[in-house]
Specification:
Strand content: 25-35%
CATH class of the largest domain: Alpha Beta
Number of domains: 3
CATH superfamily of the largest domain: Pseudouridine synthase
CATH topology of the largest domain: Pseudouridine synthase
Order of helices and strands: EEHHEEEEEEHEHEEEEEEHHEEH
CATH architecture of the largest domain: 2-Layer Sandwich
Radius of gyration: 22 Å
Helix content: 10-25%
Structural class: alpha+beta
Length: about 350
């Protein structure tokens, strides 16, 4: 190590982030590389961390101009534990659909983050759960009760384990694809088929680390299968029911973008622009109004079915479409009826 490189006491630091550069990684400055990976991080903060000797590549402290190469392991280490490890119980109202000694089924509202993470350390579902329930078992990521998760701006049903046995049993059901999960999504465009299946491995995008991408050859990512059925057609957008066989991050969002039908108002995947329709300014205004009533991706985890870990009975739960999504669908219904007249 050169004289100018800060000394680093590995034992005193906590790992906050760890990323392995992809096989196809083009040489990229480490500060820019981390900007692509870490949500809500500023360039200034990243450069300060590098200056302080808190960024390591292959366990060696680097400077900002270090170029990340394929398979480099980039770590951010800090003197305090990650905030998500310091869970604070918060009195947050939860919409509990079902509860017994083994499981809790929650209907999550849009805008609520499931568990603490970078930029969202409070107000999450987990903060609320640990306030309402004591001694929830931890999953492999140290997150109390969680077996699966849904995105911040997706609404709908989640099952939470209250015991270690329920946690293990439900995790196996999810792994074995033995659960039944159906989502409703409003997507751009008019799907050709009334039903179909989307396949393709899902993994982090090489271009934008905050997005997931579909890799048909399977060299990158994990296998993912989404079955869909058309529920209602509205000329330029389509309401579909999606049945998940696998549960990958952003699975429905990435799969539908991949087949050219990005989710309506999904800002992260480009669905917050007019992707189908006419050039009339009246239509543009109509879509803008739809975006206003539904200021998030049009995705709702409507149905959840699983075998109860202890009674072995099949449980099935269904949730109402939330008001914001219902309002947008109503607008599209009226618009389509008007067009036909």
């Amino acid at each position: 190590m050169s004289d100018t490189t800060p000394e680093i006491e590995q034992d005193e630091l906590y790992e906050h982030f760890k990323f392995t550069a992809a096989d196809g990684q083009d040489p990229l400055r480490v500060d820019k590389f981390l900007m692509n990976f870490i949500e809500n991080a500023t360039r200034n903060k990243i450069q300060q961390a590098i200056k302080a000797g808190n960024v390591l590549v292959n366990d060696t402290v680097v400077k900002s101009n270090y170029k990340v190469k394929p398979l480099d392991v980039v770590r951010v280490v800090l003197a305090h534990p990650p905030h998500e490890n310091l869970l604070v119980a918060e009195d947050i109202p939860l919409d509990i659909v079902f509860e017994d000694d083994a499981v809790i089924v929650v209907n999550k509202s849009a805008g609520m983050v499931v568990h603490p993470g970078h930029g969202n350390y409070s107000g999450t579902l987990v903060n609320g759960l640990i306030h309402h329930f004591e001694n929830l078992p931890k999953n492999s990521n140290e997150r109390p009760g969680l077996i699966h998760r849904i995105d911040k701006d997706t609404s709908g049903l989640l099952v939470v384990a209250k015991t270690e046995y329920a946690m293990a049993n439900l995790a196996k059901q999810f792994f074995d694809r033995a659960t039944d999960r159906k989502y409703l999504a409003l997507v751009w465009g008019n799907l050709k088929e009334d039903e179909g299946t989307i396949t393709g491995h899902i993994g982090r995008s090489f271009k934008n680390r905050l997005q997931m991408d579909v890799f048909p050859d399977g060299e990158h990512g994990k296998p993912a299968i989404t079955h869909y059925k058309v529920v209602e057609r509205f000329s330029y957008v389509t309401l579909v029911e999606c049945k998940l066989e696998t549960g990958r991050t952003h699975q429905i969002r990435a799969h539908f973008k991949h087949i050219g039908h990005t989710l309506f108002n999904d800002a992260r995947y480009g669905g917050d622009k007019i992707l189908k329709g006419t050039t009339f300014s009246k239509y543009k205004q109509f879509v803008e109004n739809c975006f206003k009533v539904l200021p998030r991706q049009a995705l709702h985890a409507k149905t959840l079915g699983f075998e109860h870990p202890t009674t072995k009975k099949w449980l099935e739960f269904d949730s109402e479409i939330p008001e914001d999504m219902q309002a947008a669908l109503e607008k599209w219904r009226k618009y389509t009826m008007h067009q036909k007249m």
